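Holo model, iron/sulfur cluster. Inputs:
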Amino acid sequence: MLQQTQVKTVIPYFNRFIKKFTTLKSLSKSNEKKILKLWEGLGYYRRARNLLASSKILVKKYNSQLPKTIEEVKKLPGVGDYTANALLGLIHNQPKIAIDGNVKRVFARLLNKKKDKINYEKLIVLNKKKIFNTNRNADLVEALMEFGALICKPKDPKCGACCLKKSCKYFKSSKKIIIKEKKMIKEKNYDIFCYLNGNEQIALTKENKISFLKNFNLPEIKESKKISKTKSWKFLNSYKNSISNLKLNINLYYKFSNKKPSNYNWYFLKNNKEFIPSFTKKIFQKVSTLY
Ligand code: SF4
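Output:
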């Protein structure tokens, strides 16, 4: 849940989730519809699907235990190096480090070297005796994440309170490296076409060709260059939306009709019990003003 999402956003979702699924087994017996409904609003729905798929594999193949090798853990859906190392460290107390942006920044500062000039895996292997000089590897994984977030922060690191300052080259150097945490933002333009009926319903389909919105329930969506001129659709408004590192400029069109293409289904704009992603909910809010 925390991937690309802030802790304060995640907390209520996490609490609801673990209340509903108290064991891995109960999660594995659930289905995509239920999981997505609980995840609704958190975004990056692939995480929810992968979590469900992984729980099924773990229960069936591994007797509800996490396997102990990185190769096996990485075969679980959605699990890459970072998550595999974090899981093996946290769950099996193995000497592992989950290398994320925070950890890279800490190492870069300790060495006073630019982040992209460091081979992190090699650095960890060469210094493993010093780094893993503890039996509490699970705490070490957690501590490194927290250390980067709370002490060696991207801006204004708290060097005065830092227990590593005696060996930190950044702290001692008069020529400190500059840490850039840049996010490449891409901008894209889309036209969205909504079929609406007299029962305050909108027609949605999962069949769209936009990769980052795959499997989402959406009205018709097309990439556009400028505001489209169309006679059969009425222009409602333009607005902006963001998904991860994408900034989306959206032109919204609508048409009142009791007919819809066969691969679309009608959904109520209000009190919908189905899972509706935030991206689509925003469209619901916009077109609701027409009623
Ligand atoms: S001394 Fe400062 S820069 Fe160095 S590790 Fe500690 S907080 Fe980071």
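The chain has a mean pLDDT of 91. Residues 46-62 form the longest helix (17 residues).
Archived with the compound record.
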